[in-house]
Every structure is written in C-alpha cells, then in structure tokens.
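Let us work through a complete example step by step.
Step 1: write down the sequence.
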Amino acid sequence: MSLSSACEQGVAAGGQASSGAIRLAIMGEGRMGTLVRATAEAARTEADEPAFEVVAQIGFDLSAADDAPAADVLVDFSNVATLPAVAAYVRRTGAALVSGTTGYDEAQMAELRSLAEVAAVLHSGNYSLGVAALRHATELVARELPGFDVEVVETHHNQKVDAPSGTANLLLDAVIDAEEAAGRGEYHPAYGRHGMVGARDPREVGMHSLRGGTVAGVHTVSFFGPDEEVSLTHRATSRQIFVNGALAAARKMAGKSAGWYDFDAVMFA
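Step 2: predict the structure and record it as tokens.
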C-alpha cells in the first residue's frame, strides 16, 4: 500500500475534510516524525486537494519552536524532553495538540493537562483503531470473568526508551476500571517478578515488557482461570497505523475549543 492510499484510509476515519489544507506542525524528526510528515504531505482530500500543509517540523534544535509558524495542529511523537518546547509552542500559537509521546511522569502529565486551558489537547498512548478495540474488549472480558488472573505482556523494538509502553498502561487502566466498577476491590500492577515473590496476589495485574529487534508493537492481555485461558492480542506490523490514526485525529482536532479530549470520544463519537 502506498503512503498516499494508507493515509487516505487513516484520514477517512477522521471524517470529511474542511475546505483548505490543515496547517500542521510536527515535533520531532525521528522515525515517527519523518513518517508523519511523509504521510501528511501525500494525503489528499476526496476533492484531490492536499489534506495538510506542513508549516514546521522541529528537530533537535528545540529553540526553533520559538519562531516556528503557527499551525492548526501540532503532532508530537517525540520524547518527554521536548515537553517544554511543545508547551511553549501551544501556548504561543493556540494550536491543537495531538500527542502520542509516552513516558511522562506525574509532573509532566500535569503540565500537559494544563495546556488544555488554552488549546484543544488530545493525548493517547496509542493511535491505532485496532488497539482502541482491544481496550474495549479487555474491559469487557475483565468484567465478565471475575476471579481470573490478568497478565499484560508488551513487546517493542530495541530502541524504545520507556517501559511499560503507553498502550500497556491503557490496557492496565481498562482492567482496573472494569474490576473496580464491578465492586471487586482495588487492583494494582505488578511490574515483573523476581526472586521469592510468594503466591500471586489475586488483585494484581502482571505487567511485562520485552524489547528486541524492530518489533513495531505487540500487546497481549491474558486471563487465567481454573482450567481455561483467554488471550487478546494486537500486533502492529508497522508504525504506519499509528501515523494514520494521529492524522485522522488531527483532522478531528483542528478548530476544536480548548479542553482535554479522549481518543475514543474524538474518533468514535
């Protein structure tokens, strides 16, 4: 599938294009930032007009954000270290933010959320529509299988710097929310196991991270019960699915009023 056709599929999920190309700024010039730009520049509307105009791409020189032209949407799949530049750009220009950067600590997440006071902000650990479905399925199975032990395993390439992945954390939240909504008490994560850890706590959710090669992303949620097991798995074969989802979200976010937005609500409402 060509970049153009792949993007058309992803952007189509974001709805009908408004007249005129959406002005796009991109934070980061790594693999994701490069793919976001290539896909955005290849994307066409149903009227065969450019869907996006890339007005800025900010790389290692974060000071470039101070003078970068204003965009309708800033797409950020970079690194936690760029947050000050991201925040400064959004506050200066009022651009909507579509953020897929993971690994933020609590203080950094608070700073990200504060941007919703001045701009439309969407942050998600995963922009794949398939992962969104996996999250819903995980919540359903957790609710319907009381007493089953839950383990989450995620696999990524050997260059990924944070663990567990943002997607694994989304799946963890889905399990915890379902269990607590069902009145089964407070659940908590157990990040790997080593040594004499004792019997498994029935209210823990095992979280395990594998790193190697060029794996784009594999996430499996397993439910272990008496004499049976249910496993849900999503495999990403390339980063293109995340780019398509992010650009579809950018189409939705352009022009929205300031506030904190949820990926599912934006894409499926």
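Step 3: interpret the result. The CA atoms of residues 41 and 222 lie 40 Å apart.
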